Amino acid sequence: MRTKKIDPKPARYPVGAGASESARPAQAAGLAVIILAVIVLAVSGCKGREPAPPASAPPDYPIRPVPFTQVTLADAFWAPRLETNRAVSIPFAFRMNEETGRVDNFRKAARLMTGPHKGRRFNDTDVYKAMEAAAYSLHLHPDPGLEKSLDELIDIIALAQEPDGYLYTTRTNDPANPAPGAGPERWSNLRVSHELYNAGHMYEAAVAHHLATGKRGFLAVALKNADLLLRTFGPGPGLRRGFPGHQEIEIGLAKLFRVTGRRAYLDLAKFFLDERGRYFGGRKHAPDDPFSVYDSDEYLQNHKPVLEQDEAVGHAVRAMYMYAGMADVAALADQPEYAAAIGRLWANVAGSKMYLTGGVGARHTSEAFGDAYELPNAEAYTETCAAIGNALWNHRLFLLHGDARYMDVFERVLYNGLLSGVSLSGDRFFYQNPLESAADYERSPWFEVACCPPNMTRFLPSLPGYVYATDGDVVYVNLFIAGRGDLEAAGRKVTLTQDTRYPWDGAVRMSVAPDRAGPFELAVRIPGWARNAAAPTDLYRFLDAPAGTPSLSVNGEPVPLDIRNGYARVRRTWRKGDAVELALPMPARRIVSHDAVAGNAGRVALQRGPVVFCLEGVDNDGRVFDLFIPDAAPLRADFRPELLNGVVVLAGSAVAVSKDPSGKSVESPRPFRAVPYYAWANRGRTEMLVWLPRAAAAVKPPARLDRTVD
Ligand SMILES: [Zn+2]
User: Fold this and answer.
1) Rounded to the nearest whole angstrom, what is the distance from the C-alpha of residue 388 to the centroid of ligand 1?
2) Which end of the chain is less crowded, N or C, counting CB atoms within 10 A of the terminal residue's CB?
3) CA atoms within 13 A on the CB side of 250
4) Cβ neighbours of residue 375 closer than 8 Å, sequence gap 6 or more
5) What are the tens digits of pLDDT across the range 133-151?
6) How far is the CA of 380 from the centre of ligand 1 (A)?
7) How many angstroms separate the alpha carbon of residue 191 from the centre of ligand 1?
8) CA of 546 to the centre of ligand 1 (A)
9) To 10 degrees, the CA torsion angle through 676, 681, 682, 683?
10) In this structure, are residues 152 and 207 in contact, taking their beta carbons and an 8 Å threshold?
11) How many Cα atoms are found within 13 Å in the side-chain-facing hemisphere of 479?
């Protein structure tokens, strides 16, 4: 059995500025065989013609995730959320897609009904994302009714598809009168049309459906569409050049490549990336034209070739999807310079453009990244889709480099700025996720531009696929979620189970059960917050002293913590029945931000484990903007099972600042209670604040904003 050591040679995938020195080298060749085997396994049992495997195994991520199909959750925190997603959010998304005419657009394109296309040119994606959600969910929980709805929808989509594979309901239905922005002909307005964005979401949904159910009907529609793109776009003679105004096709094509092994799909993904930064300046729209934003090259990340980009600019969701697509090309097409570019971009985002909640995209204007350290709290745009994109991107960076800091970011996003996007009831959603509110904002059932709700709905049931990963004889435990993973390590079948009350408690009990005894390495992520690193950069730091260090034991015997790249490594001969106990001390901690973040000056945020807290008016006599919390005030943590589906609350004594009749400032003690940020605004509109004044000088009234979404 191969024994792996940290390789002193330079990493094959350089990670750019601010990167760890010990980024790991790739071991694609041997792993690719395993990955191919997994793909073949995943499609086996399916009826019909299978794609022939390529003659030699293609490159892939050096680390491969244990797919969602091999992980089951039995977790007190996540299982009820996934059940709410299945029972409420997915049916709600299906219903909204019906009620708003999004499904009818496909029926009209299929000539099953007549009438004009309704809504925006990208509305097809809300149907695809709900279908992707349903596919993941069907694997988690068989549901004949949902499966029937999905099959009916796939039949409609197949009927709607044009004979050559094209499908964009607004043009397919009425080519002479497509929706505004679609352009007069196919592909004639790629910057604005979202034709390729729509296709990318179709591919993701089709692949998820195929992997979850083994059925091929939806995948066949996607492949027919992708084959049309292969005949239409590329550098060759007679083919079109250009790039899509909204990235997403790159991720979708990479997924088709992984399912089929057909290299042309991956080459096309790379082509679309490489076309950016070559053709500057869009069509000139009048400043008051709703499409004038598309004239900006920065908005579309078209200001430079992607390999030269080193600062996150423009529309945040577009950027996140592009960086995720670049990671796919880096790994699957063996293009290390793409990894170098996203390494630089990661250092920029994690170092100066990411909120403590993991949210990205500070500006309302153009839903865009701001300048370095431009992280206003009330004004924070932090779209839910951008948080999801940040998670997708960081997971891919982990798969490239095996460094826990990427999963630290993933976890920060997951438990905070991503999860805040959906209500506890499962049928209300945030588009923006600000860090301060003057009781003027709450979740909505749906939006005219409805990207966020179905994006949340598809992400949550895919969560099991992010818990574990393997690399030859190394098993990574990335997330602490109770349940079971069936995986392979060093040629053995291994069942790994976790039992934990995370994120409320830092005790994690794992059992490791290989089918036969043998040596392999268990790599358990020790989160940055447990290693006294509030962030993997100097953007955030703990204010208070660390309380306790993590510990690990095997079969009751303490093992020394051998932490490399953020993972505690235990290499031994594992036998069925082996028990691992991880203890992560989880005190409530104070965090301060880099001095350059103006809005956080003189302020502190509260975090316990991976969970960021906030003060809500409903818990604090209706007011949170007249308080400060002295640095010396003790913080008490209590689990409250009856509150917000069961949360830990932090409590202590704050100081309220008021004016006496003569106008003089008066300070008086007042108890405060903080709740997890993700759970805010589930009890009506109420004041909310994450970054809390440390002294009277920082106390100020809330900003009042117009939060109109478009
Ligand atoms: Zn969105």
Assistant:
1) 9
2) C
3) 29
4) 353, 355, 362, 593, 597, 599, 600
5) 999 999 888 999 999 999 9
6) 14
7) 18
8) 37
9) 110
10) no
11) 30
Distances (CA, A) of 333 to 228, 231, 264, 271, 584: 21, 20, 11, 12, 38
Instruction: List the single range of 8-12, 62-66, 398-402, 702-706 with lowest mean pLDDT.
Output: 8-12
User: Quick one: average pLDDT of 512-527?
Assistant: 98
In this predicted structure, what is the pLDDT of residue 260?
96
Closest CA to 124 of 204, 210, 17, 237: 204
Residue 493 dihedral angles phi and psi, to the nearest 5°: -85, 130
Give, for 453, the enclosing helix (H) or strand (E).
helix 452-459
Confirm if 257 and 209 have CB atoms less than 8 A apart: no
For 337, the 3-state DSSP assignment is: helix
Distance (Å) from CA 456 to ligand 1 centroid: 9
Separation of 656 CA from ligand 1 center, angstroms?
37
Tell me what pLDDT residue 56 has: 64
| Centre of ligand 1 from the C-alpha of residue 384, in Å | 6
What's residue 2's pLDDT? 35
231: tokens are 């005949």
Residue 181 CA, ligand 1 centroid: distance in Å = 19
Neighbour-count burial of 274, counting CB atoms closer than 10 A to its CB (0-12 exposed, 13-18 middle, 19+ buried):
middle
Give me ligand 1 centre to Cα 361, in Å. 12
Res 606 pLDDT > 60? yes
Query: How far apart, in Å, do the first and last CA atoms of the chain sit?
Result: 56
State the pLDDT at residue 710. 43
CA of residue 421 to ligand 1 center, whole Å = 10
Q: How far is the CA of 206 from the centre of ligand 1 (A)?
A: 21
**Integer angstrom CA distances of residue 573 from 559, 570, 634:** 14, 10, 45
The residue written with tokens 């080519």 in the block is 175
Q: Are strands 551-554 and 578-583 parallel, antiparallel or unpaired?
A: antiparallel
**Residue 467 carries which side chain, given as an amino acid letter?**
V
Cα 114 from Cα 117, distance rounded (Å): 9
The pTM (predicted TM-score) of the whole model is 0.92
CA 172 to ligand 1 center in whole angstroms: 25
Distance 389 CA to ligand 1 centre (A): 10
- Bridge partners for 240 per DSSP: 233
Query: Could you tell me whether strands 665-676 and 611-616 are parallel, antiparallel, or unpaired per DSSP bridges?
Result: antiparallel
For residue 14, name the pLDDT band (cuts at 50, 70, 90). very low
* CA–CA gap between residue 305 and residue 275 (Å, rounded): 8
Residue 606: closest CA among 694, 527, 671, 669: 694
Structure confidence by residue, pLDDT tens digits, 96-144: 999 999 999 999 999 999 999 999 999 999 999 999 999 999 988 899 9
Q: Given this model, what pLDDT does residue 281 score?
A: 82
Which residue, chain included where needed, has tokens 């004004």?
Answer: 379
Contact criterion met (CB below 8 Å) for 653 and 409:
no
How many angstroms does the Cα of residue 137 sit away from the middle of ligand 1? 21
Distance from Cα 386 to the centre of ligand 1, integer Å: 7
- Closest C-alpha to 651, from 681, 669, 665, 671: 671
Dihedral through CA 357, CA 359, CA 364, CA 368, nearest 10?
Answer: 150
**Contact yes or no for 61/49 (Cβ under 8 A):** no
Number of Cβ within 10 Å of residue 268's Cβ equals 22
**For residue 639, how far is its CA from the centre of ligand 1 (angstroms)?**
32
User: What does the alpha-carbon distance between residue 196 and residue 189 come to, in Å, rounded to a whole number?
Assistant: 11
Cα–ligand 1 centroid distance for 526 (angstroms): 31
CA 310 to ligand 1 center in whole angstroms:
24
Task: Identify whether the C-beta of residue 459 lies closer than 8 Å to the C-beta of residue 395.
Answer: no
Residue 328 phi/psi, 5° resolution? -60, -45
Closest C-alpha to 624, from 679, 692, 676:
692
